[in-house]
Amino acid sequence: MKEVRKIIAKYRTTDRTKEKLALATVVSIEESSYRRIGARMLVSSNGTWTGGISGGCLEGDALRRSQKAIFSKQPSIVSYDTLDEAEQNIGIGLGCNGKIDVLFVPIDYDDPSNPIELLTQAVDANEVNIIIHVIEANSSTDILGKMSLVLDSNTLHPSLAFSIDELRSKIEETRIRRRPQFVTLNHANYGPVKLLVEYLRPEYRLVIIGDNYDVLAMTELVRSLGWQMHIVGRKKKMTKPLLASARQCYEYEEIEKAPIDEHTAVILMTHDFNWDKKLLPGLVAKKPVYLGMLGPKKRMEKMKIETGINLDKVPFFHSPIGLDIGAETPEEIALSILSEIVACFRNRDGRPLKFRTGTIHEREID
Q1: Which of 70, 196, 217, 268 is the most exposed place for a label (fewest CB within 10 A)?
Q2: pLDDT per residue as tens digits for the range 291-306
Q3: For residue 53, which of 12, 112, 116, 7 has the smallest C-alpha distance?
Q4: Does the residue 267 lie in any domain?
Q5: The total number of structural domains that make up the chain
Q6: Do the Cβ atoms of 339 and 332 come closer than 8 Å?
């Protein structure tokens, strides 16, 4: 989401009288790839770009393809096949070893349904979004690259002339599995077209409960991740940098105002047992994706007794918090905790990748 926000910001600040733009989007992957489906790169006619579609091996050619889309005013889809180790292929020696399809779409500033405008709507909604892309249309390029949002369970954004009934099963499957899907449908004017049904996560949200000096070390890392951050504590104890880093700050008594849902991680780092004990039952009831409490195991055991909550049976509760990396400084401890939170968001166990069997990333499309 941080990358999407940067792309939107670039789009908003572009001098439209001098620069034209194209959006490159990864729409299909076979085998290995540094980036996943949905990775995006916004390219300007002046040769600069924001975002990325690989680890660096494809950006140069993607720049040329994007500029071609800009000046021809035509979308295109390009397959980068680095499975074949012929020397002339792009990406050899750069660790890709996969086949990647990238969609290049020129941006029409006058079109209120262009891909960047729709991405803006999706980000501003701050919820799960399903995006429909036309990635193959043999009979015409007029519809290639068109994009639509699923506005609710019954309608699509009018930028695509498809019935929601034709897509409902794939949309629901994408919501449940949180993975992209492909579907081929017949369009009234263009015949068979292939669609990508993309799952776009909302912006990750972190609620930090505490106002001591170690919170600042946490917030500095969170900002680099681009997460939405809220802080609960005594505002009079919060430094100016701490106040400035948060989307919103609340007093302890205002904790109910903090937005906590299934896309939120919460960290209790008050260093105050009584405050943790008072706040913990309400936080458990909200069922965030991650709820962590700073402190040793004996503190958690005491908390179980005094709250009457069997925390061992709360699957999203973590204490002590963080991955075992031998963290000592506030910055290292923050890194340990945030790494564990990412693992929970992505449903991983946080073990070293060298012990993982199979591919690093699960197959996105079966």
Answers
A1: 217
A2: 999 999 999 999 999 9
A3: 7
A4: yes
A5: 3
A6: no
